[in-house]
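hi!! sorry for the late reply, been swamped w classes. u asked for the two structures so here they r. pasted raw, havent cleaned anything up. first the sequence of the first protein and right below it the C-alpha cells
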Amino acid sequence: RRVHGGTGLSLLSFFLSSMFALVLACAAASREVVVGVKQRQDGRNELDRLYWEIADITSSRYGQYLTFDEITNLLASSAEDVDIVVNWLSGIGAKNIRLLPSRDTVVAELEDSKGFSNLHISEGIRNSVDFVLRRDPLKQSPLVPRIRTPKSKEHSGLTGQGGLPKQKAAYQLPADLKAGNPSNLQMVWGPGSFGYSREDLSMFYNTYCPLCDDSLVSFDTQHHGTPYQDNFGEGTLDVEYISGMGLGVPTLVSNTNTSSSTEEGNGFGAALLSFMVDLSNRQKNLPFVLSLSLGSLDAWSCDLMCSQVKGFTPQQCSDYLQKQRQVCMFLSQDQTSRINTALAAVGARGVTVVAASGDGGSHFSFQEFDSDEAIGRELNEISCAHSMPVFPASSPYVLAVGGTSWESTEPSRPVGWDGSGGGFSWDFNAPKFQNLAVQNYLNTTKNLPSNSSYFAQGRAYPDVAALADDVPMCIYSGCSPSGGTSASAPEFAGLLSLINDIRFNASLPPLGPVASRIYQLAQHYADEMFIDVTEGNTQTTCKEGFPSAKGWDPQTGWGQPLWPGLVKYLSTDQWLPRQ
C-alpha cells in the first residue's frame, strides 16, 4: 500500500483487535471506554474538499471557517451504527453511556473489566466501529528523564547561545512585542508525564523573558505532569518557548492521558487520538494555534521495517521497536488516518496545528538503532534504504517545522540542523499547493536519494524551520542547553500566535491552515519571509539524504523565519489575489 485516496481521508478499515491488545494490558478497574463509531466516507471526502478551499488564498471561500455544527453534520455517524454501539456497550455492562456532541464517538464507563476481557466482537459490531480505547489513570514510568541536547558535533560545546533574546533578534522580532487581544489562545499538548513547574517557568522568564507573565499559562486538564520523567522535559520546553515567543498570548497546557504506555510506546497513538476526539468536541476554549512536539515514525514506516527485517519474525521486530524510545508509537495506519481526519476537522474550524518534523533526519524517529544488536543492524540497513516519515508532521493538515543551527554562532547564516526530520510521506498525497516548490527542488537539486527510497508524490515536509540547536531550557532549578525540533515547533507556533493577535485586532479571522498560504506567497516573497537555508542534509548516519537547497527543501522547508516579512504577508489580507 502506498497512499490513501485523496489527501488522507479514505475509509478506515477496522483495527479493533489492535486496540484491544492495548486495552487488555491495562489494570483491572472501572475505566472510561471511548468508541469511535464509523464516520461517513462521503462526509470525510467533503471535509477534505472544503478544507482545501478554505486554505487556498485564491478561493472565494478562503478563511471562511466551518462551524462545529457544520463539521458534525459532515462526519456524524449514522443513527443505526450509533444504536449498534450503544446496545453493545449496554449488553456488556457499561454504564453512563453517552454520545459526544460530534455524534461520531460514544463514551461509557465499564465497571467490570472481566466482562471487557471476555468480549465477543461480532462482525455486526466490527462494521460499525473505527476504534475502541480505554482511558486509564497514571502509572509511574521507570524511565530515566532524557532531555534533548545538541546533536551537532560542531556546536556541542556551546552553552545555550540560542536563548529567546538572540532568537528574536535573529528573526527580527521586536523583543518587547506583546500580544493583547483577550480572545487569543495557544496550546501545547503531550501525554504521560508531560507538564511543567511554575518554579522552572519563573526561572526561565527571569533569565530570558522578563516581560513574560506566568499567570497567562495554565493547565486545562487535571494532569499536571510528573517531574523527573521523560515527557516532563518536553512539556517544559514547549511551554517556555511558545509562551516566550508568543509573548502575552494566553497558553493552555494539556495532558489528557498519564498512562506510562503513552510515554514511549504505541499507547501514544491512542492518547493522541483520544485528545483529538476531545479537541474536536470543544465548542469553547478551542486554541487558534496548537503546537505538537511529540510524534514518531508513522505506522507505514514501522510496518515496512517489520516486513523486510531478515532473521526475525514480524512479532519479534514489533516487540523490539516497542522497547525503543519514541520510535513506533502508532498502532496502525488506520489509527493515523482517523487522527488525520480530526486534524482536518479542527483546521477547518480555524486552528493552526504546528508539528515538529522529528530529530532523526529522513531515516529515523530519533536516532539510529543499536548496531551492537543483530536486529538493530538489520533495521538500520532498512531505514537507511528508505525515507521513513514521521507523524503527525507528515500530515497534510499541519504546518511541519524543521530545525536550523547557527554556523559559528551567526544567526544570519543558519544551516540545516543535522537531526532535522524531513522527507516524503508514503501515506498521504502531496497537497496541490506544494507542487511548484517540490518539483523545483526535485528537478534542480543534485545528489538526491535513489528514486526507489521515497515517494515523490507524497506530502513533503517540513514546511518551515526554526532554531533547534543549543536552545536553553530551565528545568529542575537550573538552565542548560537543549534543542531538537521539539524547540523549533513551539518557537514558530508562538510567532503565528502574535500574527493572529494582529489579525484579531484588525477584525480578521485566524490564520487557520496556514501552510497553503505560506507556500502560495513564498513563491513570490520568500526572500522577505525567510532566511533561505542552503547547507545541510537529512542523511544523519546514512549514506543518502535530502540536501538543503535554494528555495524550499525537505530539511528546513522555506527556511528560518523573518518577522517583518511574515507579519507583512500574513497579518493582513491585502496581498491576497483578487477573487
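now the second protein. again sequence first, C-alpha cells right under
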Amino acid sequence: WWCIFSWLLLVSPFSSACTLESCEGVNLLAAIKRDLEPWRLRGGIKRKDVDEAESWRVHRNQFTRTTNEGWMRVTIASGRLYATHLGAGFGSRDGVYLLVLLELLKKHRDIEDVDFVLSVMDKSHVEKARWPWRDMLPFTLSFSQSPDHLDVPIPDPSFWAWPEKAIRSQWELLADSAFVWPWEKKAPLVHWRGGLARSGGLRKKLASCAHESSQCASSLDIRAAGPNSELWEPPMGMCRFKVAVFAQGEGFTSSKHRTLGCGSLPVFLEYNAHDTYYGRFLTPGVHYKRVRYSLRANATDQDDGGTCVCGDLDRIASWASQHEHEAKGIGAKARLFAEKVLGKPLVEAYLVAVLKETASLQRLANYDIAAVLREVQLGQPAIASPRELLKRFALVDDERNRTEAWERREGPLNAAVASMEGRPCPANACAKCCGHASTRENPSTLVRSPCGKKRTFLPPPELACAIALHSDRDPWGREFDLQRTKQQQQSTLERGASSFLADDLASAKQPAWKRWQAKQQQQQQQQTAEGTGQEPPSSGVSGEGGGGESGGVGERGFALHRGHTLRNGPRARKQLKSRMAANQQQAERGGSQGLTAA
C-alpha cells in the first residue's frame, strides 16, 4: 500500500505544482531576498531610506539634468491602502497597480503594515555607485531591474491590464486560440511589428536590416507600424508565426512575456540591462535566441550603429528554417515558462512576498507607520474600493488641468476595472481602451511586409573605420557636438555612407571645445569682413582647428558656453566653478578680450 500511495503521489498533478521556492528550476523567493539584502545588512529599511527615494537626487538624470516625476508613495496600514503623488507617472500604470493592490488585500489578509515608493517608469533609478558611502539607502519598488541599480523589481501592471493599448490580462491572452496557433499551423516567417517611439535607433535598425535583407521575401516579415496602419498587429498577433521577435523599448518592455507565451521561437533584441523581474531567470538557447546589438559591452541605441543586428538576424532566420525541431523545442520551453513561472498564482505570490519581506525589514528597523500616515499621507482617507480610486484620479486630473479625454486617467482606469472584474467595457471608458485581441475580422489573414532593395555592404576599409569609430565613442556621446552630429545624420542619405564616415572620422580627431573655438573664430572673422566690406574667409574646420588659447577662446570658454564641462559629476562641477571664478577675476583685472567675451 505504501508503494501504491507513493506512485499515486508522483503521478498526481499536485507533485508538479509551482511554488516560490521551486518552479521550472527557478527559486523566486531566493531572488527576492537577494534584492533586499543591501537593506538587511544595514539593519532594516528605515524611514529616511523611503523618504530619500522621493527626492530629486534619485529621480534626476545626471546626463540630461531632467527630473523624473513618475513615482508615488504607497502605504498599507491595518489592511487599508493609502497613496499620494498620483497621476504623475506614465499612463495609467499607477492606477492599475493600485487596483491590483486592492484585489490582493482582499485575498491576503496577512499582509502587514508597509510603506514604500513605487517608480512607474521604464527604467531603474537608484544607482549602486552613488549610494554605498551614505548613511541612507533609497528604497523603491520598480517594474524594472538592472545589475547596476538597487531598485527592487516587481511584476508590472500589464500582467493584469494595459487599457491604453486595449491589452487584456496576460493569462486571458495566452488562452486566445484565435491568435495563439499550434506550431504546425504557424507561418514559417520571422515576424515583428511595433512603433519606433521611445526606442531610439534599435527598432529602426531592426526594420532597415529586414527591409534590405536578401532573405526578406522568403523568411522575414518585419516592419515598423503604428496602430492606424494596416500592418499593425493585435497584442498576440506574433503568435501566428514560427519566429517572434521581441525588440526592447526604452527600458523594460512588457511585450516580452507575451512573446514568451506564444509557443513560437522567441528572438530577443536588447541594448541595455533594464529588464523585467523575470528576465534574469531566462537562458539564451533554452528559452530564446538572441540578436546581438553590438560587439561592445557598453553600446547603446544612441551611439552605436547596431553592427551585429543585420548579420545576426539573417543567421537566426537561416537557423530557424534549417533546425525546425530545435526551434519548436525552445518555443515550447518558453511557453511553459510563461504558463508556470508567469502564471497568475505565482505572479501574485511574488508581489505579496515582496510586500511581506519589505514589511519584515521595516519592522526590524522600528518603522513608524502611524507617523507616515500623519506626515506623508496627510490624513487622507484610505482607498477602499475601485470607485473611490477613480474619484481620486478624477480630482488629480482636475488639479493638473487635464481637460482632454486622451490625457485623463478616468477612461483607461474604468476600462481596467471592467476588465479585471470580468464586466463589459462601460460607456465612460475611452473608445480605444475597449478593444479585444480577438476582434479582428479574419485572424487567418496574414498581411506581409513589403521588401526593399538588397543590402549593400561597405568596402572593407570603410567598414574597419566604422568599427574603430564606434569602439572609440563615448556611450553617451558627450564629447561630440550634438548639433554637428544631427547635421551629419540629416545629410547621410544625401551624401552616402562613404562621405559621412570620412567627415565623421575627421571631426572626431579633435575635441568638441576646439571645434567650438574654430566656429567662434570663423564668426568673428565674418563679422570683421562684413564691417570692412572685404571678402569673408573660407569656411571649414582644419585639422588643428585653431587649437590652444591663441584665439582667446579655449576650453574654458567652451565650458562656459555649454553650461557644463565635458564630464559630469561633483568633481567636474567643482572644476567648472573654479574656472568660472578664475575667468571672472581675470575679466575684472582687464584680461584678454577673448576671455572677457566668453
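hope this helps!! also noticed smth abt the second:
The longest strand covers residues 187-194.
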